[in-house]
Amino acid sequence: MLYSEKVLDHFSNPRNVGEIENADGVGEIGNAKCGDIMKMYLKIDNGIITDAKFKTFGCGAAVATSSMATELIKGKPIEDALKLTNDAVVEALDGLPAVKIHCSVLAEQAVRSALSDYYTRQGIDPLPIVGEIKEPEE
Asked: Which residues are catalytic?
C-alpha cells in the first residue's frame, strides 16, 4: 500500500490535534468495522470556522484525513465547510489507496456531525442544512 508524501506528512505531523474547550460544535463518527473513531471540534464566530481540532483513534490514513479536513475548513465560512467532500480530502492529500477511501468519508462525516451539533445548539434543525449523517461503510 503506497501513501502519498502528503498523507505521510499529515500522519507524521498532524495539524490541529486536540480538543477545543467550549467548542461551538462537536461531532463524533466511527466505523465499527475498521475501528476508526474521529471526534471533531469547531469554534465558530459569525458564521466563520475560526478553529477546528480533532482527535482520531485509527490508522494513519484516518489521522491524515482528519488533519487535512481541519486544514481545509479552518478560516472558512460554514457554507464552504458544508461543501467539503471526501473526494476533496482525498484530492488534497494527493490520493489514498482504495481500501482507505472510507477514512476520507469519516473525515467528511465528522465535519458534518460537528456542524450538525453547532446548529442544534443554536436551536436550528440541522437536517435541512447539513443532511443526514451516515455511518460510513467500509
From this structure: 34, 103
